[in-house]
Amino acid sequence: MADAFSRSIFSKTLYDNRRIFAVWALVTGLLAMMYAAFYPQMTADTAASVPDAMSGFGFEDTTSAAGYLQGPVFGLLVPLLAMFYGAATGARMISADEESGHLDLLLAHPVGRTRLLLQRFAALAAGAVVIAAAVLAGLLAVRTSADLGSVSAGEFAAQAVNLALLTLLFGGLATGIGAATGKGRAPVFGITAGIGVAAYAINGFAPQIGADWLRYLTPFHYYIGGEPLRNGFQPVDAAVLAGVTLLVMAAGAWRFTRRDLAR
């Protein structure tokens, strides 16, 4: 009975958020494909016009295919969209029900708090995988026409894996904060997005202030610092992203199971 109900929580969360997941995947995939398709238009003069301040955001080399993709596509546009997806969707997973007063009703069924949390996060993870797959499919679709052949399909896939893991990290952070604190969707989204933007800025500006070590404290370093588009899958970086996600989810679940849910 409990297993059947927990499966229904997962499937119902997927169903209720199907349009949200589809829109995020479609928009992110199309924007990544569109920006990637601009690569043949890059010239030496265009590359030289990029401000030095952007070098820490992946704009060091915009003339090679991998270098260009690590800048506007995977260094700027896609990770910020992934971060906001994780923050917005994670803020809905527990906080929305608690805010509306439906959480007590859900927990009246034969399913524990931890299982509810994990089923909701599993649905969020499915959306993250769909987004990463949409980005990968879009880039592979324009790989030949956009002169991106120097980046192999495996290297594109490696970057897509890191994208999914980055998305899961921020989704797990928002889900964990909501479960641990009982705050509403807006505060949870604001806290998570604020952490994400701050981490992104630190990762980008740290080299300019001579504090490269700060990059190792941000998830964005492990997302793209190993240059998967040049070097392929980086297991240590992936393990760090996955480990932090597990840590924040475990902390959220621990607090969630002990917190008084009375309003």
From TrEMBL:
Pfam families linked: ABC2_membrane_2 (PF12679)
Q: Which domain of life is it from?
A: Bacteria
TM ranges are 21-39, 65-85, 121-141, 161-181, 188-206, 238-257
- Which UniProt keyword terms apply here? Membrane, Transmembrane, Transmembrane helix
Q: Could you say which residues form the signal peptide?
A: none
Q: Does the keyword Transmembrane helix apply?
A: yes
Query: How is this protein named in the record?
Result: ABC transporter permease subunit
* Species name: Actinomadura sediminis
